[in-house]
Amino acid sequence: MNQILIALFIGICAGIVDIIPMIIQKLNKREILSAFVHYLALGLIIPFVNWELSGWLTGIIISLLSAIPIMIIVFPKDKKAIIPMFALSILLGAGIGYFGEMFIR
Fold first, then answer.
1. pLDDT for 57 beyond 90
2. In this structure, are residues 98 and 91 in contact, taking their beta carbons and an 8 Å threshold?
C-alpha cells in the first residue's frame, strides 16, 4: 500500500508541474484536468514497469508512447504545442521513472 501512495504522490507532483504552464496560459479547464490525470496515471504505472532498463529511460519511453495520441489530437489545432508537450513528456517521464526507481523498486 505504501508503494501505491508513493506512486500516487509522484504522479500528483508530475501532474502539477505539467499543468502550471497551462494555468498560466489560461487554457481550458478540461484540458488542464486531462493533463493532470494523464501524469497522475503515469505515476501509478511507470514505477511498476520493469523492462530491465534504468527507471528514467523506462519513464521516458512510456511517457512518450502515452503522449503520442494526445499530440495527434492537438497537432491540427496548435502545431506549436507539440514541442513543449514532447519536452515535458521526456522531462516528467524521466522524473517519474527516476523517483519511482528510487522510492519504489
1. yes
2. no
Q: How far apart are CA 87 and CA 48, in angstroms?
A: 23
**Are the C-beta atoms of 96 and 47 separated by less than 8 Å?**
yes
Question: What is the pTM assigned to this prediction?
Answer: 0.94
Grid cell for residue 4:
501505491
For residue 49, give the amino acid letter.
Answer: V
Q: Residues, the chain, total? A: 105
- Alpha-carbon distance 41 to 43, whole Å? 5
The C-alpha atoms of residue 102 and residue 28 are separated, in whole angstroms, by 34
Rounded Cα distance between 46 and 89, Å, is: 13
